[in-house]
Amino acid sequence: MGAETGAAPEPLLLHQNDVVAVATKDAPLVLGLQPCALVDHVARVDFSLLDQIPGERGGSFPVAREEVENILSKVKSHILSSPNDPSPLRTVAGGSVANTIRGLTVGFGVSSGLIGACGDDEQGDFFVDSMSSSRLNLSKLRKKKGPTAQASCVCLVDEEGNRTMRPCLSSAVKIQADEFTKEDFSGSKWLVMRYSAYNMDIIKAAIRIAKQEGVSVSLDLASFEMVGKFRQPLIELLESGDIDLCFANEDEAMELLRGKQDASPEASLEFLAKYCKWAAVTLGSYGCIARHGKEIVRVPAIGEAKAIDATGAGDLFASGFIYGLIKGLSLEECCKVGSCSGASVVLSLGGEVTPENLQWMYKQMQIKGLPLPDLL
To answer: How far is C-alpha 287 from the chain's CA centre?
Structure first.
């Protein structure tokens, strides 16, 4: 595809402000692949709205632009608000990988960046401004003519804090498989990705060059709906042996082995560990389990965390876990940092950790005797 020989892309031109220095050609330690930029519309809604939209509750599956517009038109009449949450409807720069990368940079001081594309529209500018203000390296983010996404992603949070996501990506500009160069990955240590059967050519191309450059690969299983509908391509990707670290939540883990005699999270962890150096399965209020080689650990959840919105919990768990690996922590400690990080984001609406909740996370880490980030 000529990916190795193509010319390196020009850095994305950011707005002239005090964070423009992040847009350099210096390689970020952790690079997140998000083929297209996303802007999330996050709202707390009552259960009745979830009964009116297609698909299962709690999942994340792409839908047509018309369906997202239909959902957004109904949101205002189903909004939940409370004195403790003055902003029940919020628009934020998002995407699973962006959440993880932002968490690594803001929460843990790990040099991180994004590779992908955004459109030359208002939402593209919003995404760039938001991510650059978080000091992400955006030098590998291509800006293209066209829409960032017609409606991006609507994220509905119910009364119990569970989220249901419906992204619209069909018309969004995105990076193509033949656009990657070895310079995109050279110097980085980790590549963070999210499974998507719709982007398999992009994922495979990125993995191929990343491996040539000695970069380790982390994969999140995305959603139980994506795993269930496209299980075989996922299994083939795992069986390639190119995935070093895999994250799954309980629903995704069980969906992976659906139809097998034992489809428990523990069995799924064992399956993932056959192909990945590290594997972790989050279990909500029951904590998480993880495996590295023959070592298996189980870490309880943080009881002090009262979930307002589960959006980004798995993404931020990954931030903490990867931070632990970078710091050379034990498997158990990686899980504990991940639990602190994941719990911090559920304390408010949206997939971005607030400054107040970051301080809460650091306090929890300190209580558990975990090393705090160098930025403190």
So the answer is: 19
Residue 187's identity, in one-letter code, is G
Number of H helices, E strands in the chain: 14, 13
The pLDDT assigned to 52 comes to 84
Paired with 157 in beta bridges are 44, 163
Q: What are phi and psi of 41, to 5 degrees?
A: -105, 105
pLDDT tens by residue, 178-211: 999 999 999 999 999 999 999 999 999 999 999 9
- 356-to-69, 352, 370 alpha-carbon distances in Å: 33, 12, 19
The answer to whether 309 and 161 are in contact (CB under 8 A) is: yes
Q: Report the alpha-carbon distance of residue 277 to residue 112 in Å, rounded.
A: 22
pLDDT digits 0-9 by tens, 94-134: 889 999 999 999 999 999 999 999 999 888 999 999 999 99
φ and ψ of 257, to 5 deg? -110, 20
Amino acid 305: pLDDT: 63
64, 168 in Cβ contact below 8 A?
yes
Ramachandran area for residue 363 (φ above 0: left; ψ -120 to 50: alpha; else beta)? alpha
Helix (H, G, I), strand (E, B) or coil at 101: helix
- Can you list the residues of the chain whose pLDDT is less than 50? 1-24, 151
For the segment 204-216, what is each residue's pLDDT rounded down to a tens digit? 999 999 999 999 9
Work out the number of other CB atoms within 10 angstroms of the CB of residue 181: 17
Angle at 41 between CA 38 and CA 44, to 5 degrees: 145
What is the Cα–Cα distance from 271 to 234, expressed in whole angstroms?
A: 13
Domain span holding position 90: 33-367
For 38, counting Cβ atoms within 10 Å of its Cβ (0-12 exposed, 13-18 middle, 19+ buried), the class is buried
Residue 19: inside a domain: no
DSSP 305: -
Residue 217 falls inside a structural domain:
yes
Q: Domain holding 232: CATH number?
A: 3.40.1190.20
Report if residue 220 sits inside a domain. yes
Is the residue at 265 inside a domain?
yes
Count of structural domains, the chain: 1
Taking each helix axis from N to C end, the angle separating 331-345 and 313-326, rounded to the nearest 10 degrees, works out to: 150
* Rounded Cα distance, 376 and 374, in Å: 5
pLDDT attached to residue 25: 52
